[in-house]
Design goal:
single chain; 409 residues; mainly alpha; 16 helices; 79% helix; 0% strand; disordered N terminus
């Protein structure tokens, strides 16, 4: 039992987070050349490990989505439409929950002195290793088109090739990606600790706690909805997600967490493998409920601390509707949603404010969002399981309809 626990990926990631934070605080005491060397080592470890992980993500998406589509016979387009609908509705619901809770509780919090300053990192790394890769949304679109083409043409040899390609990719994940992930997570948190962003988050500690509470509440709501909709026990899905949750907490990327999320939900006895291979890569690129919760809450809180009043409710609602659309495709990068939304925050929320205040607003938002981003990603990934459970029912309905059509003919 102890041996099994020690081999747990979740435990390794937790240990990597704590070791990374300790190292980050430790190197602050160094000076001159020793500090430069320590930072260069950590930055290089993070850079190379992240390059390998992000290079593999498009392979994983294509290797899972394309063959899973070929396993479905007819009405696969209706399945895609259903998946897109529930993903967007979940993000919108999460955004409205966050706006409501934030407007209720933020005025009750006491905030300390706000600062966007951090300890600087070296401008250049001594070693860079940039692998050419493909955008995750482009890969997802390619996988969908190839899968649909194979289904429509009944190209059986191509379907067999895709099955073999999927098995190969999953084996690469187990033998290469899993061992290097703790290095990436540890280096990431070491740099966060060194830059002083953890201390910055403490100024907004009550807001962060509120965000995490809203995310946990939304996870619960979505699994309750999924259980009612499918008439199955959602606990038989979510109880397998701790490893994926902690992985997302460390990587801060839904895309990088994808293989672990697939591994977790595959242990569930109530979701079919074909559905998992189709739904999880799709939702990892489209579903950002946890990140949206954080974005809405932080925009409200930072605006309140800087200007002493709440942002206009109508502007926040319009911002939420647009953010859930703009956010599509941003899960591949830590903090991607925040970066994607900065333009509309400036035009819709900060319109009329001085340029100096706008720059300060973006600096504080980026610092706080970056540190807490892992919690939002963990919520995204965990809630994907509820959407996959609902998608599984849709798959069953399609299969039943196809069976009926065959019997009629």
């Amino acid at each position: 039992m102890l041996k099994h626990i020690l081999k747990s990926t979740a435990l390794r990631l937790i240990i990597a987070i704590f070791i990374g934070i300790i190292i980050g605080y430790g190197i602050i005491c160094l000076k001159g050349t020793m500090l430069e060397i320590a930072l260069q080592i950590i930055m290089i470890v993070k850079h190379i490990s992240s390059q390998i992980i992000l290079f593999m993500v498009p392979l994983i998406i294509f290797g899972c989505v394309a063959p899973s589509i070929t396993r479905f016979s007819g009405n696969v387009t209706s399945l895609l439409g259903f998946s897109l609908l529930i993903a967007y509705l979940s993000s919108i619901g999460a955004a409205f929950l966050s706006i409501s809770v934030s407007r209720l509780f933020v005025p009750l919090f006491e905030f300390g002195k706000v600062s966007s300053a951090v300890n600087p990192l070296p401008e250049k790394m001594l070693i860079t290793l940039n692998f050419p890769t493909v955008d995750t949304m482009s890969t997802l679109l390619l996988a969908i088109l190839v899968g649909l083409g194979v289904v429509w043409t009944n190209f059986k040899s191509m379907a067999n090739f895709l099955e073999g390609f999927q098995a190969m990719v999953l084996l690469i994940v187990r033998r290469i990606l899993l061992p290097i992930l703790p290095l990436f997570v540890g280096a990431n948190f070491a740099l966060i600790a060194y830059k002083g962003q953890i201390e910055q988050m403490m100024i907004y500690v009550y807001v962060v706690l509120m965000i995490v509470a809203c995310q946990l509440l939304w996870i619960t709501i979505m699994y309750v909805i999924a259980s009612i909709y499918t008439r199955k026990n959602g606990w038989l899905v979510v109880k397998f997600y701790p490893k994926a949750y902690f992985t997302a907490l460390g990587t801060m990327s839904s895309a990088a967490t994808l293989p672990f999320a697939i591994e977790c939900i595959s242990e569930s006895p109530i979701v079919k493998k074909d559905t998992i291979d189709f739904a999880l890569p799709l939702f990892s690129n489209l579903h950002l409920c946890g990140s949206v919760i954080a974005e809405m809450a932080l925009v409200t809180a930072v605006y309140y601390t800087m200007f002493g009043e709440m942002p206009a409710l109508t502007n926040m609602i319009l911002f939420a509707l647009l953010a859930c659309v703009i956010a599509i495709g941003s899960p591949g990068v830590p903090g991607g949603l925040n970066m994607s939304c900065m333009t509309i925050v400036g035009t819709m929320i900060l319109a009329g404010q001085p340029s100096e205040s706008t720059i300060e607003f973006f600096g504080i938002m980026t610092a706080i969002y970056t540190v807490q981003d892992g919690f939002g990603t963990a919520c995204n990934v965990t809630t994907d399981g509820a959407l996959a459970l609902m998608t599984d029912k849709k798959v069953a309905q399609i299969e039943k309809q196809n069976t009926c059509n065959l019997n009629l003919h």
